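QA checklist item 7 of 12: single-chain prediction sanity check.
[x] sequence parsed
[x] length recorded as 324
[x] structure emitted
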Amino acid sequence: MADHIRTNPHQAYVAVRNALWPALHRLGFDGGDVLIQGGGAPTLLKMPGAPEIPEDFLAAHLARLDRLDPDAQHQPAPRGGEGDYDLVIASLPWADVQLRDPARWSTRLHRHLLMTIAATRLARPGGLVAVMTTHDLMDTPNPAPRRAILSNATFLGAVRLPAGALRPQAGTDNVVDLILLKTRTPGPHETSRPFEATVTVNIGAQPVTLNQHFDDHPDHLLGSIDVEARVWGPPVMTVAGDLTHLAQDLRTALAKLTDDAARDGLADPPGARPATRPDVRGGWVIDSARRYLPALFDVDAYRGRTPAPEHWLRPSLDPPAIDL
C-alpha cells in the first residue's frame, strides 16, 4: 500500500523481519510450512527480488540449511486449510485514510479480529502465529474479541510499535501491535498471559484505555504513551518513540518477550535434532513457495457483518458475532 509521500514499504518490513524471525525460532519454529499474508509478505519471507504489492499471500516450505535434503521435493500445503501451517504471519489490511467514521473504524477492527482468528485456525495445533494489527484489537474496552482469540490460542506477548513505524505502508500512522500467539493443543489449556483485560491510565487530564499487558510490561512499548489531538473526534492514544532505533528496540523487546515465555513454560525451544549436513551452518532456506489465498483470509467475504461501534467500546454489551 504505497502512499503519495513514500512509495516503498520495504525498509519498514526489513526491520520487523530481522527481529521477528530470531524470536520465532526461540519460541520453537524450526522450519516447516509457512503462510505469510498481507503487505510486505515477500520481504517478511525474504524472497529475493520479489515485488512489493499491497496484499499478498505466500505459502512456503522453509528448511534448515543443515538438514536440507537436495533430493526431497517439498510443496506448500496444497489447500491452505485449517491446521496446515507450522507458522502463520499476518500483516493485516489498512487503508490510506484516517478513519473518522465510527462505522468504518468498526469495520476495520472487525476484519482484523476475524483475520486474526483465521490465522490461528490455519496454524497447526502448537503452531505459531504472528500478527501485525491495529492497537484497537488489544485496547478496545470490550474483552470479548480477545476472549475469542484465546479460545484457539495462547497469548505469548505483544510489542507495540511507535506511531508511524510502518508509515511507508499507507494508513499506518495508527499505532501497530505485533502480537505473538501459539495455537492450542488437545488437552488442558496452557495458562495465557493477561490479554483480555484493559486498564485506564491518565495522560495529563486525558484518560486512555490500555491493554493490561502493556501496563504489566512497559518495556514492550517502544516509546511513551501520549495523546494526539484530532480535528474530528476526541483525542486518541499514540506512542511517541525514536524510529531511528526501531530495529534494535524491536529486537531487544522480542528477546525479552521470548525469554519470559520460555521461563513461564509457554515456549517450545527447538529440539536438538541432529544435522544431516554438519558441514553447513546457519539459517533456513526457502525450499518452495507460491502465492496462495486461503478461503479463511478472504476479506471480501466479511462484508456486511460489521457490529455497531458500541459493541467494542462497552464491556457490558454482547460480543460481536464471530462467523468464519
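[x] summary fact logged: Helices lie at 10-27, 41-45, 102-122, 136-139, 144-150, 212-216, 246-263, 310-313.
[ ] second reviewer sign-off
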